[in-house]
Amino acid sequence: MALLQMQRIYIYALKKDRKQILELLQRRGVVEVRKMLKEDKVFSRSDYSTVRQSLEKNIAIADESLAVLNNYVKEDHSLLASLQGRKELPVEAYDSFKEKYMPTIDKAKRIIELTKYIAECRAELSKLQTQVEIIKPWVNLDIPLNFKGTKYTAGFIGTLPRPYTAEEIYERLAQYMPLDVNIISASRDQTCIFVLCLKDHKDKVYEILREMDFALPSLSIDIPPAEKLIQLDQQMEDIQIQIDASIDEMVSYDEYRSDLKFLRDYDTMRLEKYEVLETLLQSKNVFIVTGFIPKKDGASLQEELTAKFTAYVEFEEPKKKDDVPVLYKNNGFSAPLESVVNSYSPPGKGEVDPTMVMSLFYYALFGLMLSDAGYGLLMVIACGVGLIKFRDTIEESMRKTLKMYLYCGIATIFWGIMFSSYFGDIIDIVAKIYFGATDLPIIPPLWFYPVEKPMLMLTFSMAVGLLHLLTGLGMKGYQLIRRKDIKGFIYDVVFWYAILISSAILLLSMKMVTDILGISPNIPDTAVDAAKIAFVAAALGIVLTNGRESRNPFKRFLKGLYALYGLSGYLSDVLSYSRLLALGLATGIIGTVVNQMASMLAKGVVGTIFFIIIVVVGHLLNMAINLLGAYVHTNRLQYVEFFGKFYEGGGNIFKPFSIKTKYYKIKESS
After folding, report:
1. I need a surface site. Which of 93, 288, 299, 663 has the fewest CB within 10 A?
2. Which of 216, 242, 262 corresponds to the end of one domain?
3. Number of Cβ within a 10 Å radius of residue 318
4. How far is Cα of residue 603 from the mean position of the Cα atoms in its chain?
């Protein structure tokens, strides 16, 4: 439940060493730079917005070029690739990249230009293909599509919306003979025709054709269609050659992918540096860095700076008004759950870090909801292999994620053994079908079968929930004691402990309740009497003290009554832990159903193959669905029920000036 102690840091150094000092601070990553001093006549801050915009533009260009390049030359983005982490490079690689900087930007821009050019060519190709489709029905026409007639004749070239024969068309135009009707092509949807008539009959013929829904071609060309098709084919061939050449050039840039990635990281580091530069106070010859640093890192950084540069480093305890950043200090068991706490909110000022206490319940509750030893074993193997195989390259965030699911898997194995769930009842099914076993179960539960005793499981779930809530209330008490608020501890914690524990004892002393739960606690009468006295005393204490901030006695009393009504909220919170029963049963029942379905086909070689397929696919789906459910509902129990009793959050995570790269990490030379 500890957070690393922070202190203010002030670094005063010569401006000529600014670049080297900032790069050293960035590589060390232990100082969160903040504006702590005001400008005056000597020291002022500079505006680097133009430089930042340029760097942001270059980062966007690098990202876009890499995305474009990946469309043409695929890169490995598998889970194993993500476990490998960022590639490690020496600091000399950063220093020497200056020579490649502009050429790499030019390559990135060229990649973007190429993809735009390829897109334009493909659009033109599509346009030409459309023209080809329009002209194809007219390929047998040996005159241009825009032919209108001669000195004494009128020509009509167009389409009718359904199949027509020449005889049908002649019949409609018979009164305007002589004329010539040619069917150029016909399909189910249209008939392409060429009609030639005397110029005197032009308007009448056109009027009849319009009544037949005659339409002119959507494309007008001044050469025969066959010749136009040849031209279009040649244009399409030329464009395709240009596209292929552009793609070949695009693919050739794959050898510069690492440079493009480094460009992205290089300017990201520079952008971070310029953002920090805007916070610095600077004079003609001196600059000042101010911010926060973990106390444990202060001495070593001070020693390094003063040894390498003409600099003075000063430390100071945080002030009450300071928004001190949060940096966790947890052991390997609890640290993986820091991201879960951050998803809710980092600890606020004066609050304790809940990660360690939360982790004890988190893993246990997750395991209870999944509660299958087979699924837990798969989680442990997968996470263990990832942690061991990639121990030298894996990113810290991924390492913590794998460790979290490793511990969740261990808890799942434990509860699976307690309830005898190994991929559902697959052991019994296999033993019965293939080995003729009759003495089942092969592996009995160490405790009980939740499906056979659901009320016992419900009782246990609510007992775990009550313990979880009381622990949250205890955390509140711990925080009040740290603040030396003894009255608040008694009024807001002790009284609630008394009323909750006494309520549980009184409920368990009722035969109706014990019959429903199927338990026999045999609580002594003296304990019941003591619980009654404690309940009344605690209730009175809550009513009389929970409105103490109000001066009006009547309002204070009403607020106290309302606070006592909060007891019903605790009851609903305890009942919400029934999800432990629901999700645990769901995992086991679905697994058993999958096994039963598979067992129906387990006859002969073919049946065995189907049996294996159904079991593997069914359990993978069941595991995936219930893993998600266990994760979501475990988080919900922490955020709503547990944190709701003592935790507000609102803090800010420690964000040091560091190397926040995507593809590479810089290592100091040894």
Report:
1. 299
2. 216
3. 15
4. 44
313 φ, ψ (degrees, to nearest 5): -115, 130
CB of 29 closer than 8 Å to CB of 668: no
- Separation of alpha carbons 600 and 616, rounded Å: 15
| CA 305/CA 31 separation, integer angstroms | 13
Look up tokens 């999700």; give the residue: 583
Other Cβ atoms within 10 Å of 101 Cβ, number = 15
167 within some domain: yes
Show the tokens assigned to 608. Answer: 């065995």
Q: How many alpha carbons lie under 13 Å from residue 290 in its C-beta half-sphere?
A: 17
631 Cβ contact partners less than 8 Å away, ≥ 6 residues apart: 366
Q: Rounded to 5 degrees, what are φ and ψ at 155?
A: -115, 140
Question: 1 pLDDT band (50/70/90 cuts)?
Answer: low
Domain that holds residue 189: 146-216
How far apart, in whole angstroms, are the C-alpha atoms of residue 568 and residue 41?
Answer: 63
In this structure, what CATH number is given to the domain that contains residue 203?
A: 3.30.70.2750
CA distance 496 to 541: 9
Helices marked H in 212-294: 225-252, 257-277
For 446-491, the pLDDT digits (tens) are 999 999 999 999 999 999 999 999 999 999 999 999 999 999 999 9
> End of a domain among 296, 322, 348?
322
Can you list the positions of beta strands (E) in 614-656? none
- CA quadruple 174, 175, 177, 182: dihedral positive or negative? negative
> How many Cβ atoms are within 10 Å of 522's Cβ, its own excluded?
8
b/e map of 469-503 (b: 16 or more CB within 10 Å)?
Answer: bbbbbebbbbbbeeeeeeebbebbbebbebbbbbb
Provide long-range contacts, Cβ within 8 A and 24+ apart, for 299-307: 301/9, 301/28, 301/30, 301/31, 304/24, 304/28, 305/11, 305/13, 305/21, 305/24
Alpha-carbon span 31 to 11, nearest angstrom: 11
In a domain? residue 617: no
Rounded Cα distance between 10 and 298, Å, is: 11
Whether the CB-CB separation of 11 and 313 falls below 8 Å is answered with yes
Give a yes or no: residue 4 inside a domain. yes
Angstrom CA distances, 410 to 362, 443, 582, 603, stand at 12, 19, 21, 35
496, 497, 502, 507: CA torsion to nearest 10: 80
> Residue 293's closest CA among 283, 284, 302, 282?
302
Q: Is 524 helix (H, G, I), strand (E, B) or coil?
A: coil
pLDDT of residue 120: 96
CATH of residue 306's domain is: 3.30.70.120
217, 134 Cβ separation under 8 angstroms: yes
Report d(CA 345, CA 643) in Å as an integer: 10
In a domain, 75, yes or no: no
**Full DSSP string of 463-487:** HHHHHHHHHHHHHHHHHHHHTT-HH
Mean pLDDT of the residues in the chain: 93
Token reading at 77: 């983005």
CA 128 to the chain's CA centroid: 43
Number of domains in the chain: 2
Residues 539-567 as b/e (b if ≥16 CB within 10 A, e otherwise) read bebbbebbbeeeeeeeebeebbeebbeeb
Mean pLDDT value of segment 336-351? 94
Residue 665 burial by Cβ neighbours in a 10 Å radius (0-12, 13-18, 19+): middle
